[in-house]
Known about the structure:
Blueprint (H helix, E strand, L loop, with lengths): L4 E6 L11 E6 L7 E11 L1 H7 L18 E9 L11 E5 L11 E5 L3 E3 L6 H5 L2 H14 L12 E5 L4 H12 L3 E6 L4 H6 L4 E4 L3 H5 L8 E6 L6 H4 L3 E9 L4 H12 L5 E4 L6 H12 L7 E6 L4 H9 L5 E5 L1
Parallel strand pairs: 8-9, 8-11, 9-10, 11-12, 12-13, 14-15
Antiparallel strand pairs: 1-2, 3-4, 3-6, 3-15, 4-5, 5-7
Helix pairs in contact: 3-4
Amino acid sequence: MAGKLMHAVHYTNCGGGPSDLKYVEVPVPTPKKDEVLIKVEAASLSPIDWVIQQGGWKPMFPRELPQIPGTDVAGEVVNVGSGVKNVKAGDKVIAMLAFANGGGLAEFVVAKANLTVIRPLEVSAAEGAGMPASGLMAHQALTDSAGLKLDGTGKPANILITNASESVGNYAIQLAKLGNAHVTATCAPEHIDLVKSLGADEVVNQTTPDGQALESPSGKKYDIVIHCGEPTSWSTFEPHLASNGKIFDVKPSPSSIKAYALKKLTFSKKQLIPVLLSCKAENMDFLVKLAKEGKVKTVIDSKYSLSNPEDAWAKNAENKIFGKIILEP
């Protein structure tokens, strides 16, 4: 498809808002040896997309401007590089793109073959597009970081998931329940019933004093905390942790990194540990199989047209959504 044009959404500078996103024509990308060209059927937004546009990750992200945002896509393989063996033209797939380069809000994307997995027919394009970054982060935090066994063979654990309205929290609840954990979740008051429907055993309104204090209604101490919320002081968490309780912060801030270093230096059994996403195709494939079996689901907040991205971008910036925002060409 060399020389052909496609529609995409991009911005030309950091620090702007929804009105800075433009629907433009750009060349269709060409896959390299280890890449696949995908015709996008759905893409999802993540909170980090807004942060990157605001310049919150400079100078690392974006790598260059103009930037086509978006990292999570689902679609159909059109072409593959010479070294690609795991997928072929015509396959329905899910892929995750690099945060530095983005590219998801477009009619076509190139993705690394090693971060592209087959999407079964039981999983829609919209559901698949909502899965990569959020699902992988929830999976990594619970399994690789916290050591929870999702087959339920591990010892029982009491888990707190903060700001469970967000998509990482959505997935974390569902995965934690597969591990037979007791789950307490905090969320916005308008999302309490939705969070309960995902399997949370206890749900606390995060706008109330008890919610802000992160106290379990049943008085349980937390073995594991998956912190999906805004920066929170160690002194807020500490009284509610079990003797070996660990906090896994999926949105690391300077304060959480400082707390991590301090607890390591003092050999504290209670710790706050930053989690940085490490994308693995086998984990994404595992999540897709769970979705196929109906054991987890992507919660979709809303859908928008790729040609009119401003409203979707504005909603993502508000950070008041429940689940994923999906854009479709």
